[in-house]
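Input for the complex:
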Amino acid sequence: MTFEALTAVALAGLGGTALVFLWLKLNRRLKRTIACYFRAFPTRRTNYANYQRNYDLAVVGGSECVGSVDLTAVPDLIGFNWGLPRQGLRQDFWIVKNYFSLIRRGGNVLLFVSPRTLQTSEDQSGDMFRYSFFLDRNFLQLEARRGADVRDWLLGNVINYTRRDRIYETAGARFPLLYPLAAFRLLMEIRQERRRRCKTALSEQQMELVAQEVFSNRPAFDALESGEVESARRANTELLITIIAFLKERGLNPVIVVPPAPSAIARRYPVHSLNRNFYSFLSRASSANVTVLDYLQTGEFSSSSCYVDSTTLTPEARRLFTQKLLKDLASANANTGAELRAMKEQSASVKHSSIRC
Amino acid sequence: MVLGTTGFSSLKEMDAAVGVAIDAGVRGFDTSRFYHTGGRSTEKCLGKVLHGKLRSGAIKREELFVTTKIAIPQMIRGGIARDVEASARDLRLDYIDCVLLHWPFPGYYISAYKALEAVQARGIVKTLGMSNCRERHFEALYQSKLSQLPAVHQMERHPLCSEEDVVRYCLDRGMVVQAYSPLGKMMGDLAGNAQLSAIAANYNKTVAQVIIRWHLDTGVVPVFRSKTPSRIRENLDVFDFNLSGGDIEAIDRMNRDHKLCTESIRCPGY
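Predicted:
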């Protein structure tokens, strides 16, 4: 081998090593950033022996849930904010299915449902990357599939099922940079969240511009002709009913919260459309004796000075809203408590006598 | 009493523990197809150990009660009969005394239980049971027209998580209730508990012995695990006393629903 060839090989080797080193360094940095972002969520690797249990309540939802609740404002309660930006009802359900055992018996689960929540089409399977950092991967794989597809996926993964599961989980968890596009999207979300926390309250004019942008980017709320939106509403309503039934079956108290919105946003929902396209579906979902706390129409947190963007309250407004929300929840539970106790006692006695083995 | 076989680091360690347990009178052994002992299948290790004890005459087959479990991946994958036959082969037994479904995984556990019924009809399994269930899981099973109701229910139970409702429900229906983590891994709140220590002092026993006696006096079979021969003997030295009603109630009142094994995380959708 000539001297030049040797030099080229050596340089290529050095370059390759440097690239690998850089890749690993970037990957490590990415992992730390993601771990920090999801630090509130326990994973399969969490040491549950010492983990907090018996939460009094959990809140779950999308951007409004993240942006309006500050559980540190109520130190007497042990609560968990399971909201994530852009989270839809299906992902709310994933989180509820995985973590509900951490809530005490009779604890409250607050489901944040806005007019946009019901309207959003549930095709967020591409978002699984971020949930894979704290939810069980095989659970997510199964959730992404329906019917015959589940069996096909299982048959394709029959051999060495648990070993493959371990390899997949290890690779994804240790080397998130193996999925550069998804990692980039997640980084952008993290960056956006960090920036949002540093923002200041908007003026009325600024909020007006924000509201115009929000409504111009999404399907019209009262688009009666849009079959896709209508079917999304129906599907989301069914899903909400399923989540409510799921929680009640497990002895938890589901509560629907319609989050507040700035007046610039709220007045863009025509009243007749709001009743037809949101409240009619919501009343169907909440018909099974579910408390609904509606802050969209109260006007209490409608001033733009309470908001840093269309869904996020200022820190002070978040504290005030959280305190109000939990005070209203306590009142609602006190009112229904006596009725619920009577119902429980009655159903227990009926169950016991009807079973024959 | 049942000796659990998860967590042994080697065949030798398991052999020593099982030997001590058998000498002290234990006849029940609990395992699972998904447990591992020093990188090897726990079922195979337990099979080898029990085979040795049977051959040496330390124990007779009809005295043994071996339990194994079907895990969630197996339920999803299907082929329960094949897995049970493989378990019987690995355990070196002609039949398995009891097979439990490890978790009531939604959408799969009822069909898995029915598959187990078919296996039981062939004589490879004597008894069927469930693990980690609540009343609603049993009611769903009862409504699905089973030919053989679960005879055993294994669940997490210790003074900080007494699960009174589920225990009563199962006992009322004639099920044998087994408690895993019966000592709550002797968490700080148990090991250093003043009330438990006082009760133990009254009977001249240790806190662990009092807790195990509490299980027995409330009709529950503890499935304990220990690698240390002296601890195994200590845990089994509980048949010379009974707790008073007041002491049982005092331990019952310690409940705070503190589960070590969080169901929804082990079995999403539970």
